[in-house]
Amino acid sequence: MYWKLALTSYSIFIHMLEIEIKSACDDPEGVEKILEDLGARFKDTLFQKDIYFAHPARNFAETDEALRLRNENGSFTLHYKGPKLDKDTKTREELGVPISEPEILIKILNNLGFTQAAIVEKNRKTYDLEGIEVAIDNVTNLGNFVELEIQDEDLEEAKARLFELMNKLKLRKTIRSSYLELLEKGFRSN
Questions:
Q1: What is the DSSP string of 21-72?
Q2: Which end of the chain is more exposed for a tag (fewer CB within 10 A), N or C?
Q3: What is the pLDDT at residue 16?
Q4: Is 2 an active-site residue?
Q5: What 8-state DSSP symbol labels residue 141?
Q6: Which of 16, 12, 13 is nearest to 1 (CA)?
Q7: Choosing from 2, 10, 52, 179, which is the catalytic residue?
């Protein structure tokens, strides 16, 4: 397995390979019905607010990286996402650390020259189907999407499993862009 968990006296640090595909979705209720029929387990309903930061000396749009602070139902995590590693999916390295004092972190980042680049908000329903996390997202100013994700498995095997489920869910082509990139392009799913 590729992920690492390092426990220190201060926090938990998570390192993983995120293998993901995303598709716009015209019928989220239909996807939920198919998931039910396939035996998926409903996990949670979440509200996520992501604050993305711009680096003071490097253009993350050019390097295909991201630094974001996520508020998920009141719990905060700082994430670094590396460049995409695969032409068919959104596979990338992701590093994350829980944050107990988000206001102080934002002040530190601002003092170092980082600036707030954008905010992405979404309502998310999550399911688990045989180790695949399925997220049905309603993203503010974008519309509805479905993300399918496996963490830390063999890339080719994971891709095959994700595309097989995508077909079962009757989803159309994949979108490799992040929600931030889609907002910047003025994309609307429906």
A1: EEEE-S-HHHHHHHHHHHTPEEEEEEEEEEEEEE-SSS-HHHHT-EEEEEEE
A2: N
A3: 66
A4: no
A5: T
A6: 16
A7: 52
